[in-house]
């Protein structure tokens, strides 16, 4: 297990950040970065537990690897074999095995992908990548800078329905817009992409304005690189409108070629099954299992039963309550690092939540450790701020609110809010990776608040209604959260606290300015400090109570060597092997 | 007969138009919209609004309905918002699974229900009657999802006799002809595939058949009891006709009218039961897709699927009505 004490981890993160700025990658990852032992759980950083098992040659069941498909149960179907047209985790999971990105993520650290190294100019507006030698696409063409530029130019010049957020959400989220925004697609912000130039294996991407999304955004699966021949093959494809179907080439194999360890072999829609086969000329370590199948089992219990019956060899999003039973039965439930955040929002447009003392009192009233211990999967932790601990800018100096019912009662009395009644919203028909059982979490918080003398009025809401309702500021208290896309604090803080909003109902210019300052600071070292300041400003405002960060559970059969599990759920299935002896 | 059929088909068109209007109004009245499911929760309000505008969801409702209707008459239901695939393609992929499951369930229900109901009636008051009646009561009482889960735990997990999920084993290499896996395996001579499909079909089909089986047993029993008391049966018996002739020509043929009606109605209701059964067994039919489409406010998928199910339902009932003529000459004479 990765057990580095927090301060050491912080120092390494800062050092890695500084190294990245000059284009040097540290040997970070799931098997490096050991920082010594810690005495208590509180001393640990759960961002990426280090695995203790090792796949030795004698453990590899070569015969099974060659003859037997590895079947992984997924909660949902993928949507598109063209990575740029996807924004959901299930599509990312499949495409990640087939396509590569310029940079990759190991744990939450940015590491080499197709680019061995990179550098940025001081303004953060030019990003030069040095590509690996000897990388070939599945169609046999070699990777070079021109191939990369062809991808970026294709995306920037998308027209019509290709620009709709339900197809290219991440591209427009990172680059603002397109070369020519189509008015019918509703995107009004200008693109910050300025161009891409190639020189052999070097490629430079220019943007007009730095944001802290870079370089993390280059790890996004949506920005995976496909072969130039693939781009030529789909050059004439159009998506007329936002509600048009996805083009046929995104639904059938055979058109797009990537550089990943697996090639697409078949997508059987009626059997909800995607079959991949090993790419023998992969630039990295070749996949151990020859055939990999992702099969959809939408029901959580059905996934567990299929694993127990041997119908599949692994599945994702195991219910936290199932983890111990699976372990007891000999299955493997490796613990991912945490990269999400669950919070309780205090909407300040509802009196007396605009009173800081009342928000503080409510924060003292809630026993977050009980939520972590009883509802969340192993590896969960109480959150002290609105980003997970693995991100740059995590501050040790934010105000904290340890559980203390008496203190909460006293503070409410002092604030004149003894007979407080609050409506508390929670979603009914959904589990999110950061919130596996919304009703259970609601029950614990509600009982804690009641113990402090607050009358709680429950308001359960269906998920499709939940986001607009909470956004509109209707709910004084509500539960929500976020799982990060890539290593960027703005991905958390920016979307919540960059400007006044009805969902939080506060107007604190110091908070907004601190986030803007960090987001636009191109110097990595300086940015770390600015994010710390921003986190401290947010927690001084106390717009809500960060509750927890927790890892979504993943499970595997006993006779399997699982991949390194990832806080970003970026598992690389080429590491998987069937094993002998169990 | 032709005039009657045409009249019924015209009624069907009016019914579908009314249904589509009702569904459309109902879906639009539901709170929340698909943009909340299609975009991540930290998408900005501006991004959500952009998507609503791009999808035409900010248009007045009558404009949206006219657009839907204009396309629907050309059998173009648009594309599913969550999968991005044409609804017609999703139907083609999903419907065969539900049809296969429903047919298998109905085969069990009819194949067991009618003989059991007949025997219960013939041996009224015996232990067989008592068992059939109380068994059918139990069948209607047990929730399908509970029965499905129990069957799965016992026969798939604990005993390991049958698979827990899917229509075929993962990675099975089969030839698709009709989409019905058992039939396809038999047609193409891929008997291992047909057998694999049968093994995957048994538990969900049993679970789904529980309610229709119970209903058919009860209706058959009641109907046979009615008929055996009729004068013509007593007369046939007095004439010294063979019991098999009395059973086939006089009792069952007359008793079949209400049974045929109920089978038609049950076939329609099987689609509802399929939602739960398919979910438990990850059977991949339309049931699970409609459930997902409902929670995600995937309007085009919902409209397309429900209208197609409605057509199925009405057509099945039309066929049942037409079959009366075959079962009972008096209906033919009157028409």
TrEMBL record, chain B:
Keyword Transmembrane among record annotations: yes
Name this polypeptide is given: ABC transporter permease subunit
Subcellular location: Cell membrane
BP terms from Gene Ontology: transmembrane transport
Membrane topology field: Multi-pass membrane protein
Predominant cellular place of this UniProt entry's protein: membrane
PROSITE patterns: ABC_TM1 (PS50928)
Any one of the GO CC terms: plasma membrane
InterPro entries linked: BPD_transp_1_N, MetI-like, MetI-like_sf
Boundaries of every ABC transmembrane type-1 domain copy: 95-324
Keyword set, alphabetical order: Cell membrane, Membrane, Transmembrane, Transmembrane helix, Transport
